[in-house]
Structure prediction request, 137 residues.
Amino acid sequence: MPIYRYQCPVCASKRDVFKRLINIDELEQCLHCTSMMNRVIMAPAVRGDYAGYSCPITGKLIEGRRAHQENLKQHGCRVLEPGETDNVKRTQRQADEALDRSVESTVEQFVQTLPTHKRERLVAEVEGGLDVAIERK
Prediction:
C-alpha cells in the first residue's frame, strides 16, 4: 500500500497514512484538533541500490545490486548471515590464542633442551636488553 502524507491546515500537524489506491479520495481527520487534513504532494521514496565497494578478492570496484550478486557468484561466495561475522572473528581469535600457547610451549621446550652454556648465554643476552618478539606475517 502507498504511504500518503497529510497536514492539518489548522494546527499544522502532519501524519503519514498507509492507504489503498482506491481509498485515495477519502479525507483524513487530524488527531489533534479533529479538522480535516489536506494531502501533501511529496517526492516518492526510492530504495537505494548497494553502495559501491572494492571486491576483497580482486580489488575491483563493485557498484549496484546486480554487480554485487554476479561478483558473489563468480567467486563462489555468499552473503553472510546475521552474527556469522562475529562467529568468524571469535573462531579466529580462539585459533590465534591456541597458536600463541603452542608457540610459547615450543619455545620453552626448545630452551630447556639447549646445552647449559647456550642457555646461560641466552639468559645473559635477554637480561642485557635483548628484545625478543614473535611476529606473524
Remarks:
- The two ends are 55 Å apart (CA to CA).
- The mean pLDDT is 89.
- The first helix runs from residue 65 to 74.
- The CA atoms of residues 102 and 108 lie 10 Å apart.
